[in-house]
Design a protein that fits this description.
Helix content is 42%, strand content 20%. The chain contains 12 helices and 12 strands.
């Protein structure tokens, strides 16, 4: 039994397909299949039901997959201990990041970070909150950048900054004539563009504005992204919400469509999370420092008049 074989069975369990698992492991499918078959012969048990699509672990295979994940995590820890002892920044560091954060934070921060620390090898993946939590648990990523929510008690959390929500209002909408947006105005809106359920950006605003259900207004779902909603507003339809960093990327005509919220201003706390057994603190501290350096200083603290959502 080898660590490589354990990596192969984890890949098949993750992808549900031998071909895709082989691609992820950068080997041919015959090689991967042969190595897994050899392991099955060695332990005397079939690990996967090959008659099902997608391919699923057998009952005993599920237990082996869980143990393999733990073994590989411990093996990686050995390497991390050595790298941390050297205070090294070398090696791959995988980060999951919310799609409502990535387009506005990454261009501000990561190009400069890569130039300043050329040994860093950061791999970024856009993921929803539940996907980040699952990927951390499975060891698929090393850290996640997301907005704080309930249910993160099992993870180590580091605050990055605080970001206000801002209204983005079409010129034809009644709210365009107002200087600030109040929650009652939002709850009564008939053309409100929101992300689909499962995005914490959307869920937090629904709670803050006390919208009881999707039937409380003509909510639009599954249009793809926040950028899509912004284009809808710019074309003259309804309102949506954008994060503070997004406003900083707008042209002057676009900024004319923004409206601040009345006090208390809805604000999200952006954090970086890792597993509690994460070892490479030196690397983590560099990333946190660089992110905080690339946002305005006033966003590093929660100010009076702001309310966490």
């Amino acid at each position: 039994m080898t660590l490589q074989q354990l990596e192969y069975i984890l890949a098949v369990a993750r992808h549900g397909h031998f071909g895709r698992a082989a691609d992820a492991c950068n080997v041919t499918q015959p090689t991967l299949s042969a190595m897994i078959a050899k392991l099955e012969e060695e332990i005397g048990a079939k690990l996967f039901d090959r008659n099902r699509q997608p391919i699923c672990p057998t009952p005993v295979g599920e237990k082996v997959v869980r143990q393999a994940r733990e073994v590989l995590s411990q093996a990686d820890n050995i390497k991390d201990i050595v790298q941390e002892e050297k205070q090294s920044l070398a090696g791959i560091f995988r980060i999951g990041i919310l799609p409502t954060i990535a387009p506005y934070l990454l261009p501000r921060c990561f190009p400069q970070m890569m130039k300043r620390y050329p040994t860093l090898d950061i791999r970024l993946r856009e993921m929803k909150t539940h996907q980040i939590k699952q990927a951390l648990t499975q060891g698929d990523i090393d850290a996640g950048i997301l907005a704080t929510i309930d249910g993160l008690e099992d993870y180590e959390q580091t605050t990055l900054f605080y970001e206000k929500y801002i209204g983005y209002v079409a010129r034809t909408d009644a709210l365009f004539q107002k200087e600030v947006i109040r929650t009652a105005d939002v709850a009564q809106s008939r053309e409100l563009w929101l992300l689909d359920e499962g995005h914490c950006f959307r869920d937090q605003m629904v709670r803050f504005c006390q919208m009881k259900s999707s039937q409380s207004s003509q909510l639009a779902y599954n249009l793809g992204s926040m950028e899509t909603f912004m284009r809808m507003v710019e074309s003259g339809m309804g309102i949506t919400f954008i994060p503070e960093l997004a406003e900083m990327q707008l042209s002057q005509p676009q900024k004319e469509l923004t409206r601040p919220f009345a006090i208390p201003v809805p604000t999200r706390q952006l954090i970086l999370i890792t597993r509690r057994d994460f070892i490479r603190r030196t690397l983590l501290d560099v990333i946190v420092k660089e992110i905080q350096a690339c946002v305005p200083k006033e966003m590093l603290k929660l100010k009076a008049g702001q309310a966490l959502v």
